[in-house]
Structures are given as structure tokens and as C-alpha cells.
Amino acid sequence: MNRFTVSEMRGRDTEDKKVYVIPCSGIGKPTASVGRDAAYRVIEEKRPKIADTICLALLTLGDKEALEKVRTADVITIDGCAKDCAKKNVEAAGRPPVSSHRVPGYLKDNKDCKPESVLDIGEGGEKLVEIIADDVAREIDRFSGGAGAGCDCKGGCC
Amino acid sequence: MELQAKPAKVGVLSCSGESEPEGTITRNAVRLVMEKYYPGVAVSLCLPLYLAGDGGEREFSKKYPVITVDGCEKACAKLSTEKYSGEVEYSIDIRRLLAEWGIKNKLSRSRPGELEWEITERVAGEIVSIIDKLVSEGKIEVQDTPGQ
Ligand code: SF4
Ligand code: SF4
Fold first, then answer.
1. Measured between CB atoms, does A55 come within 8 Å of chain B?
2. Domain-wise residue ranges, chain B
3. How far is B141 from chain A (nearest CA, A)?
4. Regarding beta strands A99-102 and A51-52, do their DSSP bridges make them parallel or antiparallel, or are they unpaired?
5. Per-residue pLDDT tens for B15-62?
6. Of A150, A131, A145, A136, which Cα lies nearest the Cα of A45?
7. Based on CB atoms within 10 Å of each CB, which residue in A2, A72, A146, B145 is the most buried?
């Protein structure tokens, strides 16, 4: 099981719904690079209308504006290892994430998707990014009632 | 006679800011220094461990001279190190460097291309110059530097 914390998304009007997808800032593990890329894939490609991210280091530092953002919006975290830095830094801000993910859990279920290195996750890593991003996007849809679905291309197709 | 052993390593900490292209540059530049230019000498730490770790991470700046590499003026790596661990020897602000270098192009945080990698290499060069300086000042004792 990759998801280990799921609670109801905080209900608000679709209009002002925002989901922050926050990966950990891991620098030593390829799985952290996968988590980072998965977050980008969700916020830039899969659910750009509703999803965004913030710098995790701002939470570590205790930046007031960043703390306020994660206290008032829904947050999904993606961590590169069991230290769960993204999850714990969000929790320390005063409100737990609505859902938390660990890249190694996905890797366990997808053994052929091993990322190569921190700077180049390779083909396997890319596949893992897609799997995680799809999962997070589906989760956002489930929580938001589909409010963020679509690619934001404004072509009328979605 | 000098009795206290000098550290053989230098701590290089990136903010790794996820929301800014400069944050991605800090992370990649620090990795380049660790892997290519000063392997075994430049060591790093996942910044959020200052808050999420078991406390041992807060010894970082007591063990090594620390260079922080921040994406912007918010200086998360520098200020977090000062808040949780201690003194920072040198700090770099990528946004300020980009202004100095006259680079105004829109950069990607998620898909670094040729320009982003060129900048990353330049930033890695800045970090290497600082490490060289720390070595020449006798603040770290480097036996050999295979990547140099
Ligand atoms: S969760 Fe693991 S990889 Fe990610 S920042 Fe923390 S220690 Fe580093
Ligand atoms: S220094 Fe700037 S780019 Fe880096 S984590 Fe902080 S806000 Fe983000």
C-alpha cells in the first residue's frame, strides 16, 4: 500500500479549491528525484487547474506565508524515503496532509521501474513518475469531485 | 602545534526549492559538485531533515564548514542552517547571480534544458571556487580530489 494517510479533502467551493502537491527536497536519493518529477507532472501537466506546489524549505524555515498556505489548503505529500520529510514538515505546520505517498512503496510494487541516479532517473524512473502522478491526479479528482480534471488547454476537449 | 583535526569534508546545502527554477538549479549544482568536482569531500543533507530528522542533522554545521546554495532571497538553506544548526561559512543566492550574469530568460523548474544546465554548471563552478578557497585558507584538509 503506497498511500498510508487519507482523510477527507477539506470542503470548499470549487472556485477557491487549491491542492498543494509537495515532494520532499531529497538530494541523496534517486527516489526523491522521482517524487519531485511526479509532483511537477501533476501540477504542470495532469491537474494544472487545481494543483500547485510550494518550496518545502519554506516550511522548514517557518515562513509565515507558506505556513498559512498549507494550513488553509489541501496538501498531498510525496516522499523519497521513510524519513517522510515532506509529510512531517507539513504536519509541523499544524495540519496533516490529506494524503501522503512514499516513492519506495511504489517501487516495491513496480520493480522494473528502478530510477538510475539522482540527476538522471532514466527510463525506469520516468515510468515510476507517470505511475505516481496518475495516482495523485486520480486522488485529486476523487477528493475534489473532479474540479481540477482536464489539462487546461482551453480547447474545449476537457 | 595544531591539536584540533581539521575537517576533511565541506557541507554544501541546497534549498532545492521545488516551486522555483532556481531551486532546481541549486539541487542539481550541488549534486554536480558532489559527483563530479569534489566527490567524497563535498557532502550534503536533505534540508527538511532539520525539522523532520532525529536531531543528529543539527550537528551538521558543527562538523563541517557549510556553504549554502539558495534559489532566491528568501535564503531558506542559509536561514534554516543558522536557525537549527549554526554558522554558515559562505552563501550563494542564485537569483542574485543570474542578475549579475545578465540572465533574464524564463527558466524551467521541471525540465531543465541546455540553458538551465549551462547555468547549473556555472553555479557548480562558483561552489568549487569557494571550496578551493576554504582549502587554501586551511579550513578543510583535502587529501586528494579525484574529480578535480
Ligand atoms: S524523505 Fe528521505 S529523501 Fe526525502 S528529504 Fe527526507 S531524508 Fe531526504
Ligand atoms: S530560497 Fe527561494 S527557491 Fe529556495 S526554497 Fe526558499 S523560497 Fe524556494
1. yes
2. 10-136
3. 24
4. unpaired
5. 999 999 999 999 999 999 999 999 999 999 999 999 999 999 999 999
6. A150
7. A2
Q: What is the pTM of this model?
A: 0.91
* CATH number assigned to the domain covering B10-136: 3.40.50
Report strand pairing: A19-23 vs A3-6. unpaired
Q: What grid cell was written down for B100?
A: 549579475
User: Structural domains in chain A?
Assistant: 6-143 (3.40.50)
> In testing the pocket of ligand 1, which one of A24, A87, A118 has its CB within 8 Å of the most ligand atoms?
A24
Q: Is the pLDDT of residue A1 over 70?
A: no
Looking at the DSSP bridge assignments, the partners of residue B11 are: B43, B66
Ligand 2 geometric centre to CA of B17 (Å)? 5
SS (H, E, C) B85-122: CCCCCEEEEHHHHHHHCCCCCCCCCCCCCHHHHHHHHH
Order of strands, sheet of B42-43, starting from the edge strand that comes earlier in the sequence: B42-43, B10-14, B66-70, B90-93
